[in-house]
Backbone:
């Protein structure tokens, strides 16, 4: 599984148009990661791979997913935000191996970050990447975030350890399941949250609904919500999510890409990134 030349060219054009600061280092790192994707053996001897990203040590499993996450997080800066505080509180739900946390700590070195990751293999690398880069004020929890406390089934492909597509939704990814501990996000929010990143592979509506019921959604100022559209082909819940955001005083921008013309993709799975921000009171 590799990224196409057209996909790569599109990312190069985007970053050249939108980024100026650090452009050379961003593109040099991208070129090195792409080369690794092309030439690296499929399975390293110990199951792990290692690289450096913008001066940070990163352990990872798979070149394809590393490149995919680098493109989204560092090239396209999907989780960039502005804050009036030097030490914002950031909550990262669906941390995987920690690239977003590395990005957040580069953006705001004094930030406090709470990261949730349910997959044990990804969590092992998450702890390693946070520890080896000596990141301070980062708390990590090996739990799934859902609308209750206890245990949930986490589905994933055993042949793809650490995949960011692991999900509590059976229809999101083919493979087997394992029981993992689950928690409510509201139980962990006790003070204002400057930025919430939510990437839970199909459970995002349940998480936002639970935050609203608990009254904790009012603590959040900005969000990046990865909405997984058409996990089931006839399931259309984006309007419900957006209505919840509107009801709680949020505005939003939407970002989405499709592999082909929209008219040819009836019921096709699609990632929609919802950038939500609290609107000023009238």
Residues:
């Amino acid at each position: 599984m590799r990224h196409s030349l057209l996909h790569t060219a599109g990312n190069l054009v985007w970053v050249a148009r939108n980024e100026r600061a650090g452009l050379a280092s961003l593109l040099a790192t991208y070129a090195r990661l792409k080369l690794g994707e092309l030439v690296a053996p499929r399975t390293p001897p110990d199951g792990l791979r290692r690289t450096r990203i913008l001066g940070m040590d990163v352990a990872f499993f798979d070149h394809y997913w590393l490149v995919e996450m680098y493109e989204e997080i560092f090239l396209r800066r999907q989780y960039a935000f502005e804050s009036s505080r030097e030490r914002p509180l950031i909550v990262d739900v669906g941390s995987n191996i920690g690239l977003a946390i590395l990005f957040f700590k580069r953006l705001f070195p004094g930030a406090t970050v709470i990261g949730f990751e349910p997959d044990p293999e990804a969590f092992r690398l998450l702890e390693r990447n946070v520890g080896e880069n000596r990141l301070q004020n980062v708390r990590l929890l090996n739990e799934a975030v859902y609308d209750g406390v206890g245990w949930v089934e986490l589905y994933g492909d055993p042949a793809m350890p650490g995949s960011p597509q692991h999900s509590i939704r059976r229809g999101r990814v083919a493979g087997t399941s394992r029981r993992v501990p689950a928690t409510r996000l509201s139980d962990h929010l006790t003070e204002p949250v400057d930025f919430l990143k939510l990437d839970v592979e199909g459970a995002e509506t349940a998480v936002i609904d639970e935050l609203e019921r608990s009254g904790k959604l009012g603590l959040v100022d900005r969000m990046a919500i990865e909405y997984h559209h058409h996990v089931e082909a006839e399931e259309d819940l984006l309007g419900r999510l957006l209505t919840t955001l509107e009801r709680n005083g949020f505005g939003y921008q939407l970002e989405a890409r499709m592999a082909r013309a929209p008219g040819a993709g009836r019921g096709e799975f699609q990632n929609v990134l919802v950038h939500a921000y609290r609107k000023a009171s009238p």
Remarks:
- Helices lie at 5-18, 23-39, 63-75, 99-107, 120-132, 204-214, 238-247.
- The longest strand covers residues 220-229.
- Residues 40 and 125 are 19 Å apart (CA to CA).
- The mean pLDDT is 88.
